[in-house]
Structures are given as structure tokens and as C-alpha cells.
Amino acid sequence: MLHTNCEFLSAEIMDVLRLFGAEEENFSHVFLRYGDDFINTIKCGEDSRTYSERWHAEGQIEYKRCAKRSAKLAFYKYLSQKTALTFPWGALTGIRPSKMAYAELAEGRDFAPLFSRFLVSEENTRIIRRIIDAQSGIYAANKGAGEDIFVSLPFCPTKCEYCSFITAPMSAVEKYTEQYTQAVISEIESLKPLITRINSVYVGGGTPFCLENSQLTRIYAAINALGTAKEFTVEAGRPDTFTEEKLQACKDFGVTRICVNPQTFSDRTLALIGRRHTTAQTYAAYEMAAKYGFDINVDLIAGLADERAEDFEKSLSAAISLDPANITVHSLCLKSGSRLKESTSRLNVSDIDNMIACSRAQLTAAGYVPYYLYRQKYQAGANENTGWCKSGRECTYNIDTMEEICSNIAVGAGAISKRVYGGGMRIERLASPKDIPTYLAKVQEIISQRNALFR
Hints:
The longest helix is centred in the first third of the chain and has 25 residues, at 59-83. The strands form 3 sheets. A 9-stranded mixed beta sheet has the order 11-12-10-9-8-7-6-5-13, with helices on both faces. Strands 1-2-3-4 form a 4-stranded mixed beta sheet, covered by helices on one side. The chain has helices spanning 10-19, 59-83, 97-106, 112-117, 122-142, 170-173, 177-189, 213-224, 244-252, 267-273, 279-290, 309-322, 339-343, 352-365, 396-403, 436-441, 443-454, and strands at 2-4, 27-34, 37-44, 47-54, 147-152, 198-204, 232-237, 257-263, 295-302, 326-331, 368-374, 385-390, 407-411, 416-421, 426-431. β14 (416-421) and β15 (426-431) form a beta hairpin. It is α/β, with parallel strands linked by helices and 455 residues long.
């Protein structure tokens, strides 16, 4: 339980308490400001400590930002001293650490001193610098210009233990797929007046290849009618859904990028997490897709089931041996609504730091560069998800959406449209219902709301 004299600091403080697993403890917090001195006094039981930080803040917005930073840093120092625990991102708990770096650069300052102040590891500061370098061309071209289009096809063969995305396996929602296809096409067709320039298209899941090829091709045709996108991604998904027919359709409709998502190359782990495909099917799907000349992304998750560092390293080596354009390394995350969350309240993956270190070393050695990074709450070891690519093979959609530099127009259940103003200075959002029947009942209302947002 947290008691503070400054309520607007509560959310920031709770993020740090969750980081240390201390959200159930009783804390008393008093915040005071004297000029540039931001003072936080923290008391837990008989232990009381005061932390003073100097932050220069002009105006109410800057004052609140500095107050939040000072409180977050004070609680991180307090709990780190109390538990002897440290984390690779220090007191940074936000989703996009790169955005903080870009904000510093925009003010003419290097971001390294601020990251150091937040006790971010030197290695993580370096990886953010590498990411900013890799993003430079796309970032400059798309900041404040054009739109990305996202199409949500939220269907999967089964539900993985760590996933909160779908509520039922494909067998339970298959009856909706034709109506859903029609609804998504209606949404896509409504976008024409809203588009100034298509930066990229991303058809995501779930597992889009769960749909019938005839349904997919109608969706692709509707997308193509909007105009030409230099980058067109289909997150095909699980290897057991791949067919030559669906891959040929992707090629025919101008798809440039495909995702093959095994998550691990261990058959034992695949069975434990509820994915009904095998490593052999992953290799077969990759070989099938490679013939069409797509840029291919392979997804891996560090920390699955009871895997150790050596297990993850085998999967990483297998992914690298395929030589895809992109490899994305996720840290296992505890998500509300997942079977994993029902069985545990906190992830304790002892080897997660070694897995992430291994991925950085091996991918760099294999010629990959990190080009985007984001974090989620309740990730194992407070780590991150990182996209790696061969030089020049960055995914535009991932950069645009992770850095929030241009508008994203999203259709389908659970999709979130974002209108970005001033290259990210202000963002307005519109979220569609996640529940498929509810979404289907509200499609026309969603279209009207989106028209109002983007016009």
C-alpha cells in the first residue's frame, strides 16, 4: 500500500514497486520541492530515507515530468539499497526508452548523462545509440509524414500459455471469420480519404494465415486499392499454417515481408507452451517462404517454460543459420488473461540476463544490427524486446510505430489507431473492441469515429 502526499506521482512509483515485487508493502512518501531541489522522503516500517535531486523545471508540464523522474529514481535507489537488486534499465520503466533519448537529442543534448542518472547500464545505453543510428534514414523520412496501416486478424490455432491476445482457439471463433473478413474490408475501403501517403502496411495477428486463402486475398485486394506501399508485411505466424497457395497469394498482391514465428526451436518447449507445431515444420515453412524472395522475420522468446541459457542459445543459433532479414528477440512477459498469469504472479527466469546477453553477442557477430526496442510491464528480469536486422533491411512499420513518429490507421478487432501531431508531440487514439462479436456489431460506429479523428 502506497501513501503519498502527491497523488500524480502514484503511477510512476507503483511501476518501481512492481519492478522489485514490493507493491504489497506499506510505504509512506512525502514529496517536496524547493526551487530546483526535488526531495523525496520514503518510509517503510521504521526505515526512513530522504533523497534529494536537482532538476531544472520551467512551467507546469516540465515540473510534473521532473517530479515523476525524481520520485521514480528515489524509490529505485531505496529498494535497490534495501534488496541489493539492480536492473539493466535502472529506474527507467517506460515502454520506449529510445523516445527519451530522442527527446534529449532534440534539445541538443546527448542522452547518455540522463540514462546514467537513471542508473541504466552502459550496455543498454550503447544499444539505444546503435538503434538510433540504424533508424536514422527511416526516422528522418517519416517523422510527421504519411501513415502506416495496420490490419488486425486476431485468430490463432491454439492459445499459447503466455498469450493474452485471443480468448479462444480458432475452432471456437471460426464461425465469425467470413463476417469478420467483410467487416475488415469495409473498414479498409473507408480509409481512402484519410490517407496522404502510405509508409507501410502490416497485416498482423494472431496468425493471419489461419484465414482461408480466399478471405486473405480479398483483404489484400482491398489494401492494394488504397495505393502502393513500399513495405507490405504479413505476419503469417505459426509454421503449421503455411501453404504454397497462401505464400503465392502474398507474392501476387505485393507483400514484401513475411513473419515465421516459431518462438523456440525446441519441440519439448513448443508442447509445454501450447503450440501445436514442431521444429521440423518451422524449417519447412521457412524454406517454403524463402523461395518467394520475401524479407523474412523470425521471432524468438527468451525465458519460455523452464528453458536455460543453453536451450535459448540453440534456438538462437538455429534462427541465425536460416539467415533471415530480421530476427526479433522477446523477453517472456507476464500478461493479464494468460494461462501463465493464472499460475504465477511474478516471473523468475534465472538465466534471462544471460539469454539477452547471448542474443546481443551472437546477432552482432552474425552481422545483425538492433533497430528497434520496446519494453512491457512484468517482463522477466525487467528486460526488453529487440528487433535485429541485416543492414538496410529494417522494417519501416516497426520503427514508425515504436517511435510514434507518424500516424497509424488501424482496422479490425483490438486495433488501436493513433493520430500523431507534430512528429509525436501529441497523440490521439481510437481503440476498437477486442471481443470479435462486439467489434462486428460496432463496425460502422468505428468507421465514423475514425473519420472524425483523422479528418
